[in-house]
Amino acid sequence: MVRLQTSFDYHNLLVTGGCGFIGTNFIRYLMEQQDFGGRIINLDKLTYAGNPHNLADLSVQFPKRYVFVRGDVAEVKVLARIFEEYEIDAVCHFAAESHVDRSIKKPDEFIRTNIVGTFQLLERSLKQKNFRRFHHISTDEVFGSLGQEGYFTEETPYHPRNPYSASKASSDHLVRAYHHTYGLPITISNCSNNYGPFQFPEKLIPLMILNGLEDKPLPVYGDGKYIRDWLYVTDHCHAIWLIMKQGLDGETYNIGGTSEKENIYIVHKICDLLDQVVGSTTIPSRRALIRFVEDRPGHDRRYAIDFSKIENTLNWSPQESIDSGLLKTVQWYIQNQDWVNQVRTGEYRTWIDQHYGQLE
Ligand code: NAD
Ligand code: DAU
Questions:
Q1: Boundaries of each NAD(P)-binding domain copy (predicted)?
Q2: Domain count of the fold of the chain
Q3: Largest CB tally within 10 Å, which of 19, 156, 321, 343?
């Protein structure tokens, strides 16, 4: 098989799940890049995790280069219309149900969106003439859990252990199968835990920041010694764009943050930052708000990424440290109370229904 680097002058890039956390950051990042002059079509179902206001200013600033469509990646008719009408030549596929706790309580939507949705998107991409690249956004969770030593590489066997990671693993396999069987041009990235602006406050870091700001309890699962490798979201966006531009057809790239930390370390850091930045009138230190609570079932102990492949071949490495990234993140949540109130109260959901009506 010929494995040329893709020329990356994509004209009509379909970004799925662009109103979620990483998708929002990616679209904003890409619109600022000098080497991208194409159009972005953002297809998002607007589940609880998707907020169209995140990108509303782009529709005004770039009326010809940014298009938003509310729709479901698992719906064949919606995909057919979009691929045809907008002459899609590349896909960057973020859309997913992304929260592990939700997948444990009710996996149904994880199967439909993450597996069936990816399948339908692959099927439609295969039919498209002059299609250039399907980039699939995946996770380090597909590799399972590590002991105290070692790192996930691109060769680590898959061993997903919760419904979310099993659904993502399944989607990765489908993407590879479409490359090997039908020759669809693809790349995959498996990334560690992201944090930064626009993250829905069900995930550890924004939840701790927002609860901490209101002196509410900070729930830490189990003994708090579970380890994640944290990556500031803009570093992830940069890596994705590099792969889309220069990554080899059919290849997978691991992306990590060199910030392996126990959860309790992260929570302590957030408490201390909030104490410094905003202080508190009711308690001397927010660490007093920490509560060790019942553990997540099947909780993976440690994730850690070996990202030497993308470092050596595409010259990527993370630019933010956990200290600089957490400070930026805390400041963003403090400065964006309107966004916080919107997503917490679900205020914009009524607007979505009035504005978009029923899903296609
Ligand atoms: P998110 O939950 O913040 O956003 C998901 C977005 O997808 C939302 O806008 C939602 O409305 C949309 N969506 C859900 N179902 C859809 C459907 N059927 N059709 C169209 N749109 C739909 O998720 P995120 O944290 O931004 O994650 C984005 C991607 O990155 C996911 O594929 C996730 O598995 C992967 N990932 C996330 C992380 C992380 O730390 N957040 C790390 C590695 C990989
Ligand atoms: O590793 C990449 C994955 O990171 C992504 O694929 C997922 O989409 C993303 O949600 C994230 O999964 P995690 O389960 O690691 O993220 P979460 O923020 O939910 O939890 C991070 C760690 O913190 C985890 O060990 C569970 C723990 N935790 C989480 C919450 C919400 C707590 O201790 N207390 C909490 O309240």
A1: 14-326
A2: 1
A3: 19
